[in-house]
Specification:
With about 675 residues, the chain is an alpha/beta fold. The protein has 17 helices and 26 strands. The strands form four sheets. The chain has a ten-stranded mixed sheet with strand order 11-10-12-13-20-19-18-15-16-21, with helices on both faces. Strands 5-4-3-2-1-9-8-7-6 form a nine-stranded parallel sheet. Strands 22-23-26-24-25 form a five-stranded antiparallel sheet, covered by helices on one side. The two termini are about 25 Å apart.
Length: about 675
């Protein structure tokens, strides 16, 4: 964000096209009263600004932009391409996407386009040329919002247009059909191709489709979505080179490789909708917020969408209880966000999202939601110095979209492995200990971290494996969990004994996988439950492995089942560092206990020692300011002792410097050193 003064932006999606024009003046007045500084506009305006092919009508939107500028509000301006208008699909039904079993998806919702469609891209970029040229110099323009939630509804398309694009993509990736056959192991099941023309998407087949083909289709589909984004971005960078570009990603969203997309954005943006019915929703948020912050090297990011209260799309849509919206919004700021935005400003009267909460509900200003939103807007506006500050972490967690896509395919030792859940379980052990953590791809430079955690890298290339070995050899502490280092980038098993590329580093060999049945646990001896969480005894579930030691020592062993007496957790000195390995999924308390042991060996401490259970602490700083954020996710009052007297920027302590803070449930404090 480069065009405005330093501040944390506050606001939401704005859809004036849903309302009579006489309402617009009231909108801007109420926005100012609520502390709004920026709105996202135009996301679904294509049918309004181009009601017929090539017949553009921007007059009404000019007035919207001018009204916002006159009120001193900035605009995150959408390229308006998220949902094609009815006339486009009538004229060109070939842009409609198809499922793997050949069913066409029709208009009537949103995002109804094949990402590979050249026709869709042509019409979309023509619109972007108009929008960019018209508003390039508009005083309200702050940042470009390209598309909307890529891959939300159309993750993969299997139509003939996509098939042709897939063949083109494979030709560029492999060069020859012989190289494709080698990569895809097509000698298996008589799948050898004589020409790229014979290749199809992995459509519905009688039994398991080729896993390498499926993996490449995930890669291709991500790339097809990104090519839509890049086609629009090329126009924006040419017409408005000084205006930053972003798009709103979804939380740890499988179809979209956030690390790859981060390379093409000026600032990362996330939509995150906490679930009030989930007691661990703040933990999922913590993981995703760390990922967004890390994707561009610690740069502040934008929370472009959240709900002021309830959403409309879950089976049971609970409202956020009093104080929860404030707490969870401040959590985003504490973990690096420089904008707190909502879907949406004014609650819709009709349409599929009319029961989705908004900053201005159906009941108007005299509602709890609007009062809480307005209070937060004023509160965020009182600490503009936070914007632009950054965080630093001694621990990193590695994840990789290619490995995720490969891990969750069929015909595996277990289809119960869920990459997102595995990652969050490891991240939670750090979060519960109060440790700051970055989330990175395995290709990252790791030498600056004292501890690196690898929840699962089923797919691991030789280069990344060497990078991990060099990190440990140089003195790092590495924690690797089960079923890692098994296949190469084509989903072919690394030969030489599991996990071949990590075998020397870990000092062990996995002889056989023993995935556990649903509901089955195995006792593990040697890991003490950590923190305040534990009870005597520890267990693992989901997975186990027959581990043979080749230089490593057993830290913990299985005490039941077929693997009784075999290692469950190992430790191996390698160079100047240590590599740890977990051969099962430890329950929460045991995972926390082991993580405490590993991080203490690495010299990684919490952001603030002695935190009460349920309290999160983070730091953001620059050369002039250092802010300590304290957030109480627990159900009881929490007293936090501070390491030195600090100024409370939000109250209730005023300008006095204090050495302790009492946080009620859902309480927030922002302390300045």
């Amino acid at each position: 964000m480069k065009r405005s003064d330093r501040r944390i932006h506050f606001g939401g999606d704005y859809y004036p096209e849903q309302w009579p024009e006489e309402v617009w003046a009231e909108d801007t007045r109420l926005m100012k009263e609520a502390g709004v500084t920026m709105v996202t506009a135009g996301v679904f305006a294509w049918a309004q600004v181009e009601p017929r092919p090539g017949d553009f009508d921007f007059g009404w939107f000019d007035r919207v932009m001018d009204n916002l500028a006159q009120a001193g509000l900035r605009v995150c301006l959408a390229t308006m391409t998220a949902s094609p208008p009815p006339w486009l699909t009538r004229l060109h039904p070939e842009i409609l996407p198809e499922t793997e079993d050949g069913r066409r998806k029709w208009p009537g919702g949103r995002q109804h386009y094949c990402p590979s469609s050249p026709v869709y891209r042509e019409y979309a970029t023509r619109l972007v040329e108009q929008v960019a040229g018209r508003y390039a110099q508009h005083p309200a323009l702050e940042v470009w919002h390209v598309g909307n939630e890529y891959g939300c509804h159309i993750r993969q398309c299997f139509c003939d247009v996509s098939a042709a694009d897939f063949r083109r993509w494979l030709g560029e990736r492999y060069g020859t059909v012989g190289a494709l056959n080698e990569a895809w192991s097509t000698a298996f099941w008589s799948q050898r191709y004589d020409s790229f023309d014979e290749v199809l998407p992995p459509r519905l087949a009688p039994t398991f489709a080729n896993p390498s083909q499926q993996l490449d289709y995930w890669r291709f589909s991500d790339d097809a979505l990104r090519q839509c984004f890049l086609a629009e971005t090329e126009v924006l960078r040419r017409v408005t080179p000084d205006v930053p570009v972003t798009t709103n990603l979804m939380p740890h969203h499988k179809p979209v490789d956030a690390f790859e997309w981060a390379r093409h954005q000026d600032v990362m943006s996330l939509d995150f909708y906490q679930d009030p019915h989930d007691p661990d929703t703040h933990l999922s948020a913590a993981y995703n917020f760390d990922l967004m912050r890390s994707a561009r090297g610690g740069q502040p990011w934008l929370l472009l969408e959240q709900a002021p209260s309830a959403v409309n799309w879950r089976p049971r849509n609970g409202p956020k209880p009093p104080g929860a919206m404030r707490l969870w919004s401040w959590q985003a700021v504490a973990q690096g966000a420089d904008a707190i935005m909502y879907f949406q400003w004014r609650q819709s009267r009709g349409g599929a999202e009319k029961f989705h909460s908004a900053m201005l509900p159906h009941g108007g200003t005299g509602t709890r939601i609007h009062r809480e939103v307005s209070d937060l807007g004023r509160e965020l506006g009182s600490v503009p110095e936070i914007a632009g500050t950054r965080s630093r972490a001694d621990a990193a967690l590695l994840t990789d979209w290619n490995s995720w896509w490969a891990l969750e395919l069929d015909s595996r030792p277990s289809t119960a492995l869920d990459q997102a859940l595995i990652n969050r379980a490891h991240h939670r052990a750090l979060f519960d200990a109060g440790v700051a953590c970055d989330v990175l791809p395995p290709s990252s430079e790791l030498s600056g971290y004292k501890l690196v955690v690898v929840p699962n890298l089923y797919l691991l290339g030789e280069d990344d494996a060497r990078r991990l070995a060099q990190y440990v050899e140089g003195g790092g502490q590495l924690l690797v969990s089960f079923f890692s280092g098994i296949v190469d980038g084509c989903d072919r098993v690394h030969l030489g004994g599991y996990p071949a590329p990590l075998r020397e580093l870990l000092g062990l060999r996995v002889e056989e996988f023993w995935p556990l049945d649903e509901g089955v646990s195995v006792p593990v001896e040697g890991v003490d439950p950590g923190g305040p969480l534990g009870a005597p005894g520890t267990e693992g579930d989901l997975w186990s492995e027959a581990v043979e030691l080749e230089g490593a020592e057993a830290v913990a062993v299985f005490r039941g089942g077929e693997l009784a007496g075999r290692p469950a957790v190992t430790r191996h000195a390698y160079g100047a560092g240590t590599a740890w390995y977990i051969g099962t999924r430890l329950h929460r308390a045991a995972m926390r206990g082991l993580m405490d042991q590993v991080r203490q060996a690495a010299g990684v401490g919490p952001v603030l020692a002695g935190l009460p259970e349920g309290v999160q602490a983070t730091v953001r700083e620059d050369d002039e300011h250092r802010f300590l954020f304290l957030l109480n996710h627990g159900d009881e009052d929490a007293v936090v002792e501070l390491p030195e007297p600090m100024r409370d920027r939000l109250g209730p302590y005023g300008t006095d410097r204090v050495t302790a803070v009492t946080l009620p449930p859902r309480g927030v404090a922002v302390m300045e050193h």
